[in-house]
Amino acid sequence: GAGVSQSPSNKVTEKGKDVELRCDPISGHTALYWYRQSLGQGLEFLIYFQGNSAPDKSGLPSDRFSAERTGGSVSTLTIQRTQQEDSAVYLCASSFDRSTEAFFGQGTRLTVV
Amino acid sequence: AQSVTQLGSHVSVSEGALVLLRCNYSSSVPPYLFWYVQYPNQGLQLLLKYTTGATLVKGINGFEAEFKKSETSFHLTKPSAHMSDAAEYFCAVRRGVGAQKLVFGQGTRLTINP
To answer: Chain A within 8 Å of B43 (Cβ-Cβ)?
Structure first.
């Protein structure tokens, strides 16, 4: 596609439920990133994919968070047993390779009630 | 480790005035530097970047930034602010070729007064 696409754009979930957030990167981009943006925390790096592997997952806040990427394209970020502190905007970005600029999607706004 | 500091979480200028948003970085190797802009309820859009070569880089919407190695700075400027420039601006650093993640500053919210 023309840009990075994320779905859903908004998600409201009950505490304790699992959620899946999807990212469709720009076609041909090998690098994919997930960031979290919350009030007072700025942009926090979560995980980086190069192809289907994740050489850097140092930003995942707990073992409730996981991500995968298949076919070198679509990525899914899964949050299990959601907590209120997981409420944030989750941003996905992709780049042609790891040394070029990243292009961001519109984000998924997650609200845990 | 690399980090980015943006001085001033909020900056307010009058329409037509100079915009100056400050960014200082720390990096043990020559960095790649970026400025992104975020409009309300939108993702981040790249304004400009510095990788190598000319230290004064020009971006979209009349913005430019100068890489000053001696000052470890990459401040963003625009000679004349427009109401449409109101947004949040993020400075980011990537630690050169082969580096992976972008590290972002905390952001600066720019307000334009009529």
So the answer is: yes
Residue among A43, A99, A105 whose CB faces B104 most closely: A43
Distance (Å) from the alpha carbon of B112 to chain A's nearest alpha carbon: 22
Taking CB atoms and an 8 Å cut-off, how many pairs form between chains A and B? 52
Give the C-alpha separation, B60 to B67, whole Å.
Answer: 17
Is B56 within 8 Å of chain A by CB? Answer: no
- Angle (CA) B65-B71-B73 rounded to 5° is 30
Strand partners, A48: A33, A56
- Whether B97 shows a pLDDT value over 60: the answer reads no
Residue written as token pair 């959620």: A19
Alpha-helical segments (H) within A1-113: none
Structure tokens at B67: 């890489």
CA distance A20 to chain B (A): 19
- Tens of pLDDT, residue by residue over B40-59, are 878 899 999 998 888 999 99
A21 contacts chain B (CB < 8 A): no
Asked if residue B24 has pLDDT above 80, the reply is: yes
